[in-house]
Amino acid sequence: MKAVAYQKAGPITSPEALVDIEIDTPVAKGHDLLVRVQAVSVNPVDTKIRKNVSAEQSGWKILGWDAVGTVEAIGDKVTQFK
After folding, report:
1. Burial, 57: exposed, middle or buried (Cβ in 10 Å; 0-12, 13-18, 19+)?
2. CA 35, CA 59: separation in Å to the nearest integer?
3. Cα(16)–Cα(69) distance, integer angstroms
4. pLDDT tens track for 19-35
5. Does an H or E element contain 41, and which?
6. Pairwise CA distance, residues 6 & 17, whole Å
7. The pTM is what?
8. pLDDT of 30-60, one tens digit each?
9. Which DSSP letter does residue 24 get?
10. Does residue 36 sit in helix, strand or coil?
11. How many helices (H) and strands (E) does the chain have?
């Protein structure tokens, strides 16, 4: 699946500030919902995280706190969605 991510915190002017990556599709478990995202927005939380929080060593930090889409799968403890 596609995601927008980064590895090192810093200014948005950095060439590596936002990178399109491919990751494995997550599996819904527990209280999770797996949502097929159709649109995202950037909010103040995304900008502050991007500027101040680096990803864990050799990993990616994925942005996108606000999204809209369709529920594709639910975890085994989910009770309010089908």
Report:
1. exposed
2. 22
3. 27
4. 999 999 999 999 999 99
5. strand 33-41
6. 6
7. 0.77
8. 999 999 999 988 888 888 999 999 999 989 9
9. P
10. strand
11. 1, 5
